Amino acid sequence: MSYIESSLLDGEKIRELFNFHWSSKVLAIVMIPLIIPSFGIALIIIIREYIKLVSTDQCLTDQRIILKTGILTYTTDIIELPSIKTVTIDQNFFGSIFNFGSVIISDNKSKDITFKYVDNPINVKNTIDNARTE
């Protein structure tokens, strides 16, 4: 059972789990041939990136937005759906070409949650906007 599933409120259901785009793994893949020449520094970078990917949960439920990061110690950011003020997309040039980017969710209290390296950020934004209006 994942952290998200174990932290759901009574009657709350997961609507969407947002996955990372394949490009978020590029740094680790590029570093593999450099492990030996860099005396293991590349291996440390690969491990760090892998841990970052597997320890992040990005989720939309029927009541709130949840972002959990970390393994041994973790941080959870939550915004209730009625509190969402804006949902914006941040894409660079390569993000536009390969269809990935960040989705920034802001609430009425100046709190932001950022889903980074999300696959198909326009679809993520539309899914969140649709959940807000239901």
From TrEMBL:
<keyword id="KW-1133">Transmembrane helix</keyword>
<feature type="domain" description="YdbS-like PH">
    <location>
        <begin position="60"/>
        <end position="119"/>
    </location>
</feature>
<feature type="transmembrane region" description="Helical">
    <location>
        <begin position="26"/>
        <end position="47"/>
    </location>
</feature>
<keyword id="KW-0812">Transmembrane</keyword>
<dbReference type="Pfam" id="PF03703">
    <property type="entry name" value="bPH_2"/>
</dbReference>
<dbReference type="InterPro" id="IPR005182">
    <property type="entry name" value="YdbS-like_PH"/>
</dbReference>
<protein>
    <recommendedName>
        <fullName>YdbS-like PH domain-containing protein</fullName>
    </recommendedName>
</protein>
<keyword id="KW-0472">Membrane</keyword>
